[in-house]
Design brief:
Elements: E1 2-8, H1 14-22, H2 26-34, E2 37-45, E3 50-57, H3 60-65, H4 70-79, E4 94-96
Antiparallel strand pairs: 1-3, 1-4, 2-3
């Protein structure tokens, strides 16, 4: 299954967002894989500061369980100062509808 979603950075945080992801914690990488995620890519629209995420997941239910892991909550807290978040520090993420896919 393919998921697409968008998030939003705060102005001036582009380089910091990229830096933090280039140093992604090994525990976070493990959690993503353990919850069925692979081929995870995030793109940035520099004009709007919109982030577009793409990830392939094995199962929606398994993937959703990753949100409640301690390492994921720690990552959300770590990222909350540079992007739009919900009250629990999860990123404001809007799922996008898949309208076309070519293998």
């Amino acid at each position: 299954m393919i998921k697409g979603f968008k998030m939003k950075l705060f102005p001036g945080q582009e380089a910091e967002y990229e830096r933090r992801h280039n140093l992604l914690w090994p525990e976070m990488k493990d959690m993503i894989h353990e919850h069925g995620g692979k081929n995870y890519t995030i793109f940035l629209d520099k004009e709007t500061l919109t982030l577009f995420g793409y990830i392939e997941i094995e199962d929606e239910e398994l993937w959703a369980k990753g949100a409640d892991t301690a390492i994921n909550r720690k990552w959300w807290d770590f990222m909350a100062d540079i992007m739009e978040t919900n009250p629990d520090n999860s990123p404001v993420a809007i799922d996008l509808k898949n309208v076309f896919h070519l293998d």
